[in-house]
Amino acid sequence: MFETLRALSDGFVNAFALHNLGWALVGTTLGTAIGVLPGIGPALTVAVLLPVTFTLDPTSAFIMFGGIYSGAMYGGSTTSILLNTPGETGSIATAIDGYMMARQGRGAAALTTAAIGSFVAGTLATVALTFFAPPLARAALRFGPAEYFALTVVAFTTVSLLLGPSRAKGLFSLFLGLSVGLVGIDQLTGDARFSFGIPQLLDGIDVVILVIGLFAVGETIFQAWQYGRSEPEAVVLHDFTGMNRDEWKRSWGPWLRGAAIGFPLGVLPCGGTVIPTFVSYATEKRLSKEPERFGHGAIEGVAGPEAANNAAAAGVLVPLLTLGVPSSATAAVMLAAFQQYGLQPGPLLFTSRPDLVWTLIASLYIGNVMLLVLNLPLVGIWARVMLMPRRLLFAGVLVLASLGAYSLNGSLVDLAILYLVGAVGCAMRVYGVPLVPAVLGLVLGPLAELQFRRALAISEGDLTIFVTRPISFVLLLVAAMLLFSSRLLTTRLASTESA
Amino acid sequence: MPRFIRALCAIATVLAVARPVGAASDAQFEQLRLIAPAAPGGGWDQTARVMQQVLQRTGLVRTVPVENIAGAAGTIGLARFVGSEQGRGDTLLVSGLIMLGGIVMHRSPVTLREVTPIARLTGEYEAIVVPASSPFRTLSDVIRALKERPESLSWGGGSAGGSDQILAGLVAEAVGVPPGRINYVAFSGGGESLSAILGGQVSLGINGLAELEPQIEAKAVRALAISSADRLPGLDVPTLREQGVDVEFENWRSVVAPPGIGERERQRLESVVAAMVATPEWKATLERYRWIDRYLTGESLARFVEREETRVRATLQQLDTGQSSGGLLASGAAYPAFVLTGLALTALAALVAGRTERRSAAASADGEKSWGTVWWIGVALAINLALAEKVGFVIASTAMFWLTSRAFDNRHPARDGVFAALMAVGAYVLFGHLLQLPLPGGVLERWL
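Above: the input entities. Below: the structure tokens describing the complete assembly.
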């Protein structure tokens, strides 16, 4: 413990040199700027900015990495809240209530709770990374395909909370997402499925394209259809001052719980950011006394997922730094960057170059503070985007969404899919089919299938593997309990209401 | 606002600093585009980004933008490369063994015969390891178990049809086990398979040596064999050959140029790559990434690729005849059947639900909907789709912006036009230039 603190303080001494603070600032700014663009996730952000860091000495470069990483993770939330355009998968959950808040004139409050939540959770998670990384990483290795499958089953129970007023329509949306997830190469055999001979479909439909299409493009077309020119724009009283007392009180719990959910799920390799953010969203809805506010601008639905997202981002670094296992695309890019500086990531990284590792960790703390300092004053300015006339706002959304989708692979096919999904999204709105189950289906479906089949391949077709392995068994039990309790709760509520 | 402007200045300074200072006069190329047919983080992406760094630092090329076109073991990038870069003498695609496998696996209509080979650059050996807690001590223990019942051993490695599975097939064949009966579990990406091996989720791990070596050194896994011809200095692991398995294997990577380029252009590309591999920076990089120098060009390269193609094709065809060892539920057909049935049933249920709702809501008909506006937006999207690559991002986006804003409100056409142009140019400069995302410049490319 004492040694850890000393090493960390050495790291801080390195990071606090004036020019290094400057690089941290540049890193967070650049990371946020690119992270804001829909479609450009943290992995590409770090990759694009790598050449910039090559000209620096290793310490400064690592400090900038820390900044870029934190910034890119945070950047997606701004467009998510203001434009209903999640830049990457981690900010989908944020969009649900964040955008509603912005429409109701509480955009500044949503941005504030996202910024502070990111800071609080990011810092807590970095503390956990500092002190408990090695045992956590070892524990994460106990997760095999059976456990991951059980985890996706738990994540699927969150869908039951997001089905919307009509269960039939919600399930239809879910299966729509699952069907879209079928498209592409079967990862276990390499065979193409439902790609209809179009090579661009071989890799499946990118979640980001689906999300931007359903949310941003779909919303634009829907607004045009519903209001068009005829209706004068609704006057909303906007408040640009950040959170009020009640909103502070509502945010605390979700921040802390978000951190507690996000960090361990980030540590698990292949966790991604969708599962932690949606589990956090579902937890908040379940714990809330007024769950009906969710989906209509509940600040808890922004605070929790944003906190979970940033905590998961710090969690990803645990297996990377302690075991040399890159569990996300972003981590893989960072690993490559480490190698540029002659570092061999792996179990021996901490002992071979402790100075750089601790500088990186120190710069994560600094990056989190910088994000807060940088973004809080801007919250009022960004939120004024909502004052733009509707015609310019939606035109801008279309340009940004197209730019993001195109630059994913530089392909017109992606652009065409984006617009098609947009049209579908508009139709779903018109007929009252909820959008979020479709997104969850696309994300979780392929993951569940893959892990299920992997587990069966390892057990040679023996289904009992899911209940004989203790962690998997417990997770499945939790899922069953969650599903059962929610069913019980709704029926009881319904019976008391009708009584 | 000044804060934002200051931030922009900072970005500009950084990118100005990042530009190579190498004198323009001795640069052989003003610009050389590199296309990595994979997502950021993988071996091809790393190769491209390392080349970018070496070429720019040594001043051989002034700017080296890297583009990622991910998918299907590189075959999507290959198809795009052959389709749209025809005859361009300033573009290279990173390629290699895995692409050969992808071409066979995904029955790609485009093959490596259609591109212009420039050079093989690097090779990476593979290693077969077991978790530290495994009962297997040597390769012969594994072979014995394999001969008894091949399915009882699960092999964890990279994506289906990739280098790891090819090697697993070659090893099986060499020891007389039908490759189709190997229980190979494909994981995506190095990290996922590595954690499955470290956690003992699979009985054997098969992966690139560069990824496994740190784990071997830390004794987190036990290495049973490496795929090189001779033992490697500083690594006490026997080769496959010396343990009676007649296989030698490496995952090589190369660069290729588009089809239809002239002889002079080919020579220019070859010479810039030759100059790159001769630099001390390149050599140092190889060491850092634990890549082997496998520089090869010309006739011998063509013959080498041909030989490898035959070998890969033969191995993968044998693997293909194998069945999944997890039974019907683990096959690729069970899940799609479940999902499509579910989709049909829920669609029906939603339709019924919609009917009853509609009837109740019919009274409160929600006013007039403006189909006109929707048409305008449809036109805007169609125009962007049609123009984006033909005449460039700026013009297409300006048109889309203007049409969309017009759809909502047509009272300020001139003002909206100015906004549209400003937004498009601004986005192009910020993302296309400063952040170097690949955006089509189109007819305005020269002025922007």
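Note for the figure: Chain A touches chain B through 126 residues (CB under 8 Å).
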